[in-house]
Amino acid sequence: MGQGEGSPARGARALLTVAALAVALAAADTYVVVLALTDMMAGVGVGIESLQRGTPIISGFLLGYIAVLPLIGRVSDLVDRRRILLWCLVIFVIGSAVTAVAVELPVMVGGRFLQGLGGGGLVPATLALVADLWPPGRRGMPLGVVGAVQEMGSVLGPLLGALVLAVTGWREIFWLNVVLGLLALVGVAIIRPVASTDKTVRTPPTADPATHHDRRSRVLTATAYLLAVLAAALWTLALWAPEVLTTSIELGAPFVPLDPASGSRVATPVGVAAAVTTLLLGVVTLPRWLPLLLRADLLGAVLLAVALGSLVLTFSTANPETEVLGPWGVWLLPLGVLATVAFLLRQRLAAHPLIPSGVVRARVWPALGVSVLVGAAIVAVVVDVPLLSRLTQGTDETDAALVLVRFLVAVPVGALLGGWLLRRVGPALVAAPGLAVAAVSILAMARWDRASLDDLTVTTLALAGAGLGVGLAIAPVNDAALADAREDAHGTVSSLVVVARMVGMVVGLALLTAIGLRSFHTEVGRLADPTDSDALLDAAVVQVQTVLTGAGYAAALAAVLALALGFRAVGRDAREVRSAGGAQV
Predict the structure, then answer these.
(1) Are 299 and 293 in contact (CB under 8 A)?
(2) pTM of the predicted model, to two decimals?
């Protein structure tokens, strides 16, 4: 018996399960370095006294995660989503392996960048896949699942890191990523959903020159495979540098650094050979990927990547307790502004811009606005609640982070509940009340004083309420945006929703921190004795309260804006028409 018109494609749930687990793995990798950071720094020769030099290990991942999201989202609208998932997993696995073997900081940062690049691309591709495999009105629960596993990654990341570190070293964390990533890769490769008509699920059309299997194409394909294998072997030798070869008189010459003082494994003859081979591979495969990227508006993507990258590096490298801008902010912010202006001009002048005309329309606008505001609210809780714990309870960074577990566990629970509710009510009726609960909970946190964290009941109610409320909004925002997006732009819209949330987190933290620091300095200026440590602690608590108050207002504004997501369940009209048609038969 065939599937109903409103049923998902066969194999959809299996593919979503694998893709969602991959999203969770990538999300966990955002936080997995929290406990391993000092060990990772030591592994590349950076001491704890140079902690600032280790920030690129984190910011490199964020840069890869956010900067190329719009391009990946657009490309996923032009080719089969499964191909995007497969390539993102390949990049994630390569990045994990590079990070695992790194013995110098630039290599480790490069590996983390590749991890972010691959991991970030999984999210919009998976969200768009839901839109392909499930009809309107049936997407709530699968979108809730994707949101839930993504948030669950933030909980499991530090725990996974702690578990691995308790048994072995930090490098095994990333080798575990390689193994799990390869398993997900196999799963995506073998699961092929088919629609009720027994035809493969929609594959966006694309002009792929590689589909012409002439003799020249076969030769180029064989050459590309040969170069890929050779590049992989050379990079493995360069980064691994097996002792049996490096210490050999006959075989060790290719591993001698070009600059003996640097000790670099990359700046060696074998490393140079690997780089040249990789460049040749890029040239040989140019006809395969360049036309696709040009069609997706590569220039617009580069301009937007520069703008987003400048934003991320400006604010993510700052210490949120003491400063707003990172050390490069004075140079990066003007660069980001110029790139943004150039991107907007490109959007208006290009025949086929990165974000096609009419893609951001109707409920996509409020969905993006809610995402920005929710990102600001989330990051304030994630950063300032542990800060309050460290200030008032004297905990270290690890114990302070554990205070957040109640919030982080509640978010995926809310995401699943929000997806389930979408089958019955409209997005606004799920997201707006949820965000209102989050706003009330965060504003309650803003009244916490030096003794509040000792009250388990009060803190649990506030943290769980905030997490549940934020989680309730995840599926409705994505559902409304995908419902009003063009059929050929689900990937683009999904990437914009993710980018909006990340921008909200980065910029929101900076703005709220600026306001909080101002309140701190105001309080310090009123002190009769500026050296009074007890009074300074009270001033620091006021700073946290100010930031959380701003986050509560952001959540409240998001609740109001969420009313524009629609009060009618997505797809209900279509279901009623089908029901009426069936009654007339």
Answers:
(1) no
(2) 0.85
